[in-house]
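In this notebook, the sequence line spells out the residues, with the fold written below as integer tokens. This is how one looks.
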Amino acid sequence: MKKTLFLLLAIVIACGSVMAQHRPHRGPHRGPRHHFSRVERHHPRMGRHHHLRSMATPKVPEFLKKGDKIAILSPSSVPTDLSIIDKGAKVLQQWGFKTVEGPHARSNYHTYAGTTDERLSDIMWALRDPSIKAIVCSRGGYGSANVLTKLSLDSLRKYPKWIVGYSDITGYLSAEVRAGNMGIHGNMCGYLAKTGGTDQLSLYLRDMLMGKMPRYEVPGNEYNKPGKASGILIGGNMCVYGDIADTPFDILDRHFIDGRDIILFIEEVEEPYSRIDRMFQHLILRGAMDKIKALVVGRFDGCPTSRGYNSVFEFIAEYTKDYDIPICYDFPTGHDESWNYPLIEGCPVTLDVSKEKVTMEFNLPK
């Protein structure tokens, strides 16, 4: 019996010695060299609990009240007319808000508003400052993908704030939703500067920022496929969210949309039919079209008719004819700013489609 015990003890000691020899050497602990906090430096992937997190309805950032501060940033391209920053700020001030400008909002680095790191630093500055309650972008353009390579979802999750914009800003709004926050797909400084902020679309945006939800009712379209659906509203510019597919910022990621009711809205500008064809094929091949509960087709401005179709809507209607879901056409979203209603990305909505009219109601979580 004693010999057996001694033999077992010897085996245990030998195994422990072998494991110790093969244990990786971690070396001395070195603190983070970057100025971001440890949480903010985390890789943008959502972590092992990302699926559980994604099943929750995105969080509603704090609504604004008069006197709150809004940051104006240029996180993508620099405005070709820098005066829209001043004029947009004036409109926001007339609405009762205070405004601050990002340090690089007017910078010009190869048409981007600063280098990738400069634009990232502007975003982090606005997110971290507790006195800043929302971010309104000066314009879209190009460049969100550059910044997203360095922007952590944990940072967006840690500092939930309204981000307002469209076009290339779709990338940032997608990141917000994947981080668990809602955002606003809507007009930016250029439109506010042009209209003075007194038109109905601008007032929709003002009220939305302050927690007053509109109920949209718009004319129907001959291509509408009637029906009613409820779900989380996501989408935006097809090129932009297509380019970030299969990344941590992908709003149509299978893990994000599986088991959820999703209503997708799409818009595009100055793209040939061949490109739109590829984008729809991508949606189908990745399984997104089989998952959504309804499709909202916005404006496709400057997309020339071709290939024997009379319109982009006819082209899309042929692509979607076999999907038994409500589909509406020419909904007010897109690059035609006079037909670009503010939409809350990540918000539960109810969509009711008929040939005569379309209604959309926002159902904010209680």
User: Anything to note?
Assistant: The chain has two domains: 69-212, 216-362. Residues 87 and 193 are 5 Å apart (CA to CA). The chain is about 35% helix and 20% strand. The two ends are 69 Å apart (CA to CA).
